[in-house]
Amino acid sequence: MNQALKIGTRDSELAVWQATLVQQQLAAHGISSELVFIKSDGDIDLVTPLYEIGVQGIFTKTLDAALLSKRIDLAVHSMKDVPTQPAKGIVPAAVLKRASYKDLLVYKGELPNAIAHYNAQANYPPLTIATSSIRRKAQWLHRYPGHNIENLRGNVNTRLQKVADSNWNGAIFAAAGLERIEKRPEQSIELDWMLPAAAQGAIMVVCREDDNATLESCVLLHDTNTALCTRIERDFLRTLFGGCSTPISALAVIDKNLLSFTGNILSLNGQQKLEISEEIELDNDPALIEAIGKKAADTLLARGADKIVEEIRHAGS
Q: Where is the Porphobilinogen deaminase N-terminal domain positioned along the sequence (predicted)?
């Protein structure tokens, strides 16, 4: 392409890092591009996206509007923030190779015994842990029902500073976000027991559905395995009627010829939990492989997940 592609991004350090990665990968294929920084102040909402089934897209709406008004050619998102039903007129253009999908605890002082030497039968003193994610909150309270959860919002740097300035025991972050901008503290530990958000650790590029030239450029960055795994995870989330405000987790991983999937849903207080695991070999019918997330969600719905979903909806109304 002769004209440089305009890459839309939010202006946080992490968002710029991700957009720059896309820019570098495009350059490796001889495609020039430039970054366009979009602030979420509503001044560019010339074409309000029409979202399906009420999805808000809180972290993507402003960039969607910039795309639809042709101010930018493509937008770069943390894939877990992208609604499972995108705005009308916008389509996925590429899914980059996934980084770490894990959550981690950034802690203060010595690592608490409740974390370092966890025993479900032990009577540890309650901790105060910060997170704005109800998925993380629900899983934490399921494992540690006596602990206190504080709300923590802001970009990565703001949240790290809030932890440093607080009297909390720690806070939960996505490993990929901290590691990408080289801000992971030494006092941190991966929460191997915590199932991640659908598509956590993956980056998605989106563009207008009628922009074939940009689509052809972006497909050069596409990672097939990551796209398959995250699609399965998001199908699980969609089938359970989930979004950012539901404690639903999903993870699909590929090891050689085997795809393994685990998904769960919890009540808001963490007391109820339904989980399912499935495996399928990659030489199976592709339709069966792609359907594994929806099939797992349907199984949980038959086991009572619909009641948990209904309770969550009532709590938010």
A: 5-215
